[in-house]
Amino acid sequence: MLEINTKEDFIIPFEKIGDDEWIERTQIILEAIADNSYATLETPVSDSEIDILEQRLGTALPTGLKLFYSTFGIADIGEILMDFDTIGRLSAIWANSSHGPSFTAKDQEYLPYLITFGDYLGNGNMFCFHEKTHEIYYFDHDSAPFLSKLFDTADDYIRSCLIFAQCEFCGEETDEEETEEWAEEIVEAFVGRAVIDKWHY
């Protein structure tokens, strides 16, 4: 069972999805998340399911995201990965509505290229990948600008989620407030403080 008593107990699942032992390290974290919520691990997504999704979207999934799906399925990573039926273009959500966000001119530069794949805790904020660059953008429905690039790759996003997810597994010698501080320090070293502030605050 995964237990966090010191900062060094956190598992860094990978630097890049596909690294040596990334499956073993990621499996430990995903099993702990599933056990904690009395759930079972998801079934890997088949190549044919991925092909059908890519054909519907008219673009390829980011390489790391595709490999994650084919290895661990639509897993609980501490945040919500969307079902394949739900993944789609962010702009299409308001295509037939006059009540969508008032996207800024800068937002409009990215909006046509963004494809949703993550629902941040079900609160209406979403993570998207850019179909050309595969960078990861955050849609924040609360305030303009509504779109912010947070991660260079889906690998960076998933790794950060899996690190933060370990905060719940406090040992007897610590508490969740302390593990959250450690997780922030670890993730900050990878992606910078500004990303954490936008994402978690």
From TrEMBL:
InterPro entries: Knr4/Smi1-like_dom (IPR018958), Knr4/Smi1-like_sf (IPR037883). Transmembrane segments: none annotated. It comes from the Bacteria. SUPFAM superfamilies: SMI1/KNR4-like. Residues 44-160 form the Knr4/Smi1-like domain. This is Knr4/Smi1-like domain-containing protein. It comes from Flavobacterium kingsejongi. Pfam families: SMI1_KNR4.
